[in-house]
């Protein structure tokens, strides 16, 4: 004898475990620069049909039955979708920290591009950059901004990045700023389709579409705010509420398995 609720409850427990894993990952990255939280999407599983709707019924076989008899077999994780909203900006006062201000409020489409070697590129919202000993702008884990916006001189006593991405420096003994180079941004038609690879970076994919390059402030490209960093868009309070709901759902599915077991035990204890 097989009780479907045993297997349905098991699929529910597995799905809720995955949900809690995803929430835990989001909470772990609540302070990660540029991090985007994930939404877990669920789908119901296969249905077993005992009687299809529309079959002939009644004593004379002329009545079309309006409803059928079906029972589902549980739930599965259908996918995870990153929430591409802009995280809060925090002022750092460092000129090499950069925040992308999107042209469409709270809708992320623009990214910085970094060279990860061997002709490959990755994209990031983490604007926490530094300058190496050659004056090139790079991430804190050593990947250079691409294309390079030029080199900052050792003689520079002040650096300014405009909202349109133009990099200026003031050399020692000079009163005027000179232009060094231009920072480029990259946009995607479907940024949620980017492939996350960790370390605050994504890769271009077929789902995301091809990266479109442009200067900040032009067309669909946002502005750059120097001296600010984008933080994670994870709302810790909302995630804690989601975790409580997921925990309760896990318990409900566990209870359905326990109830099914008790039913089997009752049947096993029947006597002739």
Overview of this structure, please?
This protein has two helices and 22 strands. The protein has helices at 4-28, 236-268; strands spanning 38-44, 47-51, 56-57, 63-64, 69-72, 75-82, 89-91, 98-101, 110-117, 120-124, 129-131, 137-139, 144-145, 156-161, 166-171, 178-182, 185-187, 195-198, 201-203, 212-214, 223-226, 228-230. 21% of the residues lie in helices and 34% in strands. With 272 residues, the protein is an alpha+beta fold. Strands 9, 10, 13, 17 and 20 form a five-stranded antiparallel sheet that branches. It has a three-stranded antiparallel sheet with strand order 14-15-16, with no helix packed on it. Strands 1-6 form a two-stranded antiparallel sheet. The two termini are 18 Å apart. The model has no long low-confidence stretch (mean pLDDT 91).
Largest sheet: 5 strands, antiparallel
Shape, principal axes of CA atoms: elongated
Number of distinct beta strands: 22
Tally of helical runs: 2
Provide the structure class: alpha+beta
Q: Name the beta content range.
A: 25-35%
Straight-line N-to-C gap: 18 Å
Which key terms come to mind for this protein?
272 residues; alpha+beta; five-stranded antiparallel beta sheet; three-stranded antiparallel beta sheet; 2 helices; elongated
Set out the fold topology.
Blueprint: H1 4-28, E1 38-44, E2 47-51, E3 56-57, E4 63-64, E5 69-72, E6 75-82, E7 89-91, E8 98-101, E9 110-117, E10 120-124, E11 129-131, E12 137-139, E13 144-145, E14 156-161, E15 166-171, E16 178-182, E17 185-187, E18 195-198, E19 201-203, E20 212-214, E21 223-226, E22 228-230, H2 236-268
Antiparallel strand pairs: 1-6, 2-5, 3-4, 7-22, 8-21, 9-10, 9-13, 9-17, 11-12, 14-15, 15-16, 17-20, 18-19
């Amino acid at each position: 004898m097989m009780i479907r609720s045993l297997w349905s409850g098991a699929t529910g427990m597995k799905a809720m475990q995955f949900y809690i894993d995803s929430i835990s990952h989001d909470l772990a990255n609540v302070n990660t620069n540029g991090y985007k939280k994930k939404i877990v999407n669920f789908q119901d599983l296969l249905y077993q049909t005992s009687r299809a709707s529309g079959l002939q019924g009644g004593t004379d076989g002329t009545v079309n039955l309006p409803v059928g008899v079906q029972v589902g077999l549980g739930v599965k994780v259908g996918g995870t979708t990153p929430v591409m909203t802009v995280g809060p900006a925090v002022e750092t006062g460092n000129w090499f920290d950069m925040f992308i201000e999107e042209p469409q409020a709270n809708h992320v489409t623009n990214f910085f591009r970094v060279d990860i070697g061997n002709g490959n590129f990755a994209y990031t919202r983490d604007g926490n950059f530094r300058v190496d000993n050659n004056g090139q702008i790079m991430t804190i884990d050593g990947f250079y901004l691409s294309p390079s916006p030029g080199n900052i001189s050792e003689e520079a006593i002040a650096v300014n990045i405009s909202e349109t991405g133009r990099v200026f420096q003031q050399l020692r003994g000079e009163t005027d700023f000179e232009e060094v180079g231009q920072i480029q941004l990259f946009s995607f038609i479907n940024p949620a389709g980017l492939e996350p690879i960790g370390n605050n970076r994504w890769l271009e994919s077929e789902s995301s579409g091809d990266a479109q390059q442009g200067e900040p402030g032009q067309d669909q490209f946002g502005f750059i705010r120097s001296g600010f960093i984008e933080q994670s868009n994870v709302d810790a309070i909302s995630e804690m509420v989601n975790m409580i709901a997921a925990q309760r759902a896990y318990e409900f599915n566990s209870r359905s398995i326990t109830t099914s077991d008790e039913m089997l035990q009752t049947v096993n204890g029947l006597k002739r």
